[in-house]
Design goal:
- It is a single chain.
- This protein has 144 residues and is mostly helical.
- The chain contains 6 helices and no strands.
- The radius of gyration is 19 Å and the shape is elongated.
Length: 144
């Protein structure tokens, strides 16, 4: 069970990062085409950005909403959160050009983090599952 739980953490981290990456591309295109406000742009950006959009709608500043949303997903690593915090800090840009450059940087950093998460899932995640199966088999053999 421990190995499966670790695998699920690796899987969930990769899923969240992929969702954020896809959402950031959608948001970038929305801002590029319509210069929509952030809370409107975040609405269709996936789980993370929808949560941030709700927090903005509740009265938080965009930077605070994104920072608080980062803590809601426990499978994210410290490096993932630091990428999100840097992105949140850049949300104070007043014009569309500043928002687009911040999103471009965020997308680039997310792409690298997504590659690391995929590698972790494929190597460490599978190792956790196989290790837990082997451990369970060893315990069964000891009990017999």
């Amino acid at each position: 069970m421990i190995g499966m739980r670790k695998y699920n953490n690796f899987y969930e981290r990769r899923r969240i990062l992929q969702s954020m990456y896809d959402g950031s591309i959608k948001i970038k295109e929305t801002i590029r085409c319509t210069c929509a406000p952030l809370h409107e742009s975040f609405l269709w950006g996936g789980d993370f950005f929808e949560l941030a959009s709700r927090k903005i709608g509740d009265g938080l500043l965009p930077e605070e909403a994104v920072n608080e949303s980062a803590w809601e997903f426990c499978s994210l690593t410290a490096e993932d959160r630091s990428i999100i915090f840097r992105f949140a800090h850049g949300l104070s840009a007043a014009d569309c050009k500043g928002q687009l450059s911040n999103l471009e940087l965020f997308t680039t950093e997310l792409e690298k983090a997504l590659q690391v998460a995929t590698n972790d899932l494929n190597t460490r995640g599978k190792l956790c599952v196989k290790g837990s199966i082997l451990t369970a088999a060893a315990v069964v053999l000891l009990l017999i």
